[in-house]
Amino acid sequence: MSGDTLFRGPSDLHTHSRVSDGTESPSRLVREAAAAGLGVVALTDHDSTAGWHEAAGEAQKQNITFLPGMEFSTRYGYKSVHLLAYLFDPLSAELVAETARIRESRLKRAESIVRRIGVDYALDWDDVLAQTTPGATVGRPHIADALVARGHVPTRSEAFTGILHPRNGYYLPHYAPDPLLAVTLVRRAGGVPVIAHPATRGRDAMIDEQHLAKLVDAGLFGLEIDHRENTDDGKVRLRELAKKFGLVLTGSSDYHGAGKPNRLGENTTTDAVVQAIIAEGTGSQPVYPPEL
Ligand code: AMP
Ligand code: FE
Ligand code: FE
Ligand code: ZN
């Protein structure tokens, strides 16, 4: 592709398949992206690159561009921070080891949460397995789906606001690295790190400027601003911070199939920013459509 060729349509850089907590296969997700008129789709399953190959193959058939990605689980104090990572080397040994550690901890934590719920509700681990694709990154969404299947709650979202909410006594955390380590690992693997939905709790609960400065020094490249869960006052602050630190701003759906109301393409990223991300990433390649 020549440097200034436009993509076939808008770009959605944050989506989940059944490789983590989305409900569609990677290929179905890419078909839906093409049907929604997108020209570029990134697959960003939690802590896993296992869907890249399937998604890339389908993107070629659908004539759209595929951007390999991941949503890296990190934690700062009590706060969970999600880091989107694009175009890193999926074989980076240190990154592979870290994501494996997170997935193993997620699995043990999910088993423990299910044991705790099982004291009060009819629910066991087989119920969760029935909702999970083998090898997937397991999370509360799979437990939520099992609670729905058992008839304890009507929808996945209501499981999150009820039984699975941290205040309701069943919740447990899982291992996650510090954001600074995650940014460093992504960069060392040739990837491009962008903080996902940084303002879901409003501007006052956002990452503070000194901490952000450290992440920028370690190679942070952008902030996801257009996301349905970022608050309006938080977006104003994100714009200020991006300007101050020279960060790009992205927009995406955070599509989870039927698991969340978020629709593909409901937020998008400008072509200029997508091209900047592509120019920055050296660990893997976007997959362009055959005739672009
Ligand atoms: P966990 O990482 O296991 O604590 O679970 C949190 C994850 O659940 C986040 O990545 C959310 O995006 C995801 N999630 C999926 N569906 C929903 C939903 N309907 N409501 C809230 N969170 C959801
Ligand atoms: Fe998710
Ligand atoms: Fe997230
Ligand atoms: Zn996400």
Automatic annotation (TrEMBL):
<dbReference type="Pfam" id="PF02811">
    <property type="entry name" value="PHP"/>
</dbReference>
<dbReference type="InterPro" id="IPR004013">
    <property type="entry name" value="PHP_dom"/>
</dbReference>
<dbReference type="InterPro" id="IPR052018">
    <property type="entry name" value="PHP_domain"/>
</dbReference>
<dbReference type="InterPro" id="IPR016195">
    <property type="entry name" value="Pol/histidinol_Pase-like"/>
</dbReference>
<feature type="compositionally biased region" description="Basic and acidic residues">
    <location>
        <begin position="11"/>
        <end position="21"/>
    </location>
</feature>
<dbReference type="GO" id="GO:0004534">
    <property type="term" value="F:5'-3' RNA exonuclease activity"/>
</dbReference>
<protein>
    <submittedName>
        <fullName>PHP domain-containing protein</fullName>
    </submittedName>
</protein>
<feature type="region of interest" description="Disordered">
    <location>
        <begin position="1"/>
        <end position="26"/>
    </location>
</feature>
<feature type="domain" description="Polymerase/histidinol phosphatase N-terminal">
    <location>
        <begin position="11"/>
        <end position="76"/>
    </location>
</feature>
<dbReference type="InterPro" id="IPR003141">
    <property type="entry name" value="Pol/His_phosphatase_N"/>
</dbReference>
<dbReference type="GO" id="GO:0035312">
    <property type="term" value="F:5'-3' DNA exonuclease activity"/>
</dbReference>
